[in-house]
């Protein structure tokens, strides 16, 4: 299975009419955040393959359609005009959830990709299992930023679905799709780019085959793109990265 992974940058190799020729035989597309939705739409239209996206800590103009945002509840409406605006926002939210872009939102979800299968330890074909998480560490109280404790509880909320996967498919998940990094793996020391310690816990506990993240821009060729943490291969998919996923291994 060939997976095109993108994040953080509109890549000229992809954002052109020859993209499908530049990247032939793509089966699936994963977007790891900080990408304009127009770019995601372009990718969907050019490749016409199942596409999943999460949010980063930038390019959040449509974040409110997928998550509650402080100040946008009915309690904050102080006039009929505000109430009407909120009603319109609610309608737009419903439209986009049904999905407006052709790409499916994977943030804080466990997803079974039934169109793409992986052979489990018993030799049975099972869906590709993806768990997605949006956002970065909190550094200026912006949207889609979380403390490590907040992120931990977001991960805990995913556990029932992971246990279901383990019972039904023999494993918790195959791919952990995030924007931010684990602590001490590909992260930086500045407040914006520190990784989540809760991700380290998650990797040790649920052992995905791959963790795909963005957030760390690879302008320095000396920076590592691929690392190993516990039983997981951690890959920085900045700009683009093509993952050849061996579907014959659990």
Can you give a write-up of this model?
With 250 residues, the chain is an alpha/beta fold. Helices cover 25% and strands 25% of the residues. The chain is built from 6 helices and 13 strands. Strands 5-6-9-10-12-11 form a 6-stranded mixed beta sheet. Strands 4-3-2-1-13 form a 5-stranded mixed beta sheet, with helices on one face. The chain has a two-stranded parallel ribbon with strand order 7-8. Helix 6 links the parallel strand 9 and strand 10. The two termini are 13 Å apart.
**Which class of secondary structure composition applies to the elements?**
alpha/beta
Largest sheet: 6 strands, mixed
Unreliable spans are 72-99
| Average pLDDT level | 88
What is the quaternary state of this protein?
single chain
* Strand order, largest beta sheet: 5-6-9-10-12-11
Shape: globular
The H-and-E topology, N to C, reads as EHEHEHEEEEEHHEHEEEE
Q: Any idea what the radius of gyration is?
A: 18 Å
> Considering DSSP H and I runs of 4 or more, what fraction of the residues is helical?
25-40%
Intertermini distance: 13 Å
Strand content: 15-25%
**Number of DSSP helical runs:** 6
- SS elements, strand count: 13
């Amino acid at each position: 299975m060939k997976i095109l992974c993108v994040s953080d940058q509109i890549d000229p190799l992809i954002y052109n009419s020859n993209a499908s020729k530049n990247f032939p035989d793509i089966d699936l597309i994963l977007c790891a955040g900080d990408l304009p939705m127009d770019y995601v739409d372009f990718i969907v239209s050019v490749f016409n393959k199942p596409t999943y996206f999460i949010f980063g800590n930038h390019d959040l103009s449509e974040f409110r359609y997928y998550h509650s945002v402080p100040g946008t509840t009915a309690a904050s409406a102080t006039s009929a005009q505000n109430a009407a605006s909120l009603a319109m926002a609610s309608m737009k939210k419903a439209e986009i959830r049904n999905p407006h872009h052709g790409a499916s939102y994977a943030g804080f979800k466990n997803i079974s990709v039934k169109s793409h299968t992986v052979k489990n330890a018993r030799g049975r074909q099972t869906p590709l299992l993806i768990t997605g998480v949006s956002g970065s560490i909190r550094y200026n109280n912006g949207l889609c930023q979380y403390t490590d404790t907040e992120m931990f509880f977001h991960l805990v909320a995913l556990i029932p679905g992971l246990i279901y996967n383990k019972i039904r498919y023999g494993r918790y998940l195959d791919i952990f799709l995030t924007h931010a990094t684990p602590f001490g793996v590909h992260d930086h020391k500045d407040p914006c780019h520190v990784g989540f310690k809760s991700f380290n816990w998650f990797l040790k506990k649920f052992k995905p085959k791959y963790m795909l993240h963005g957030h760390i821009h690879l302008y320095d060729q000396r920076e590592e793109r691929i690392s190993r943490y516990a039983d997981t291969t951690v890959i920085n998919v900045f700009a683009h990265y093509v993952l050849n996923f061996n579907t014959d291994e659990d």
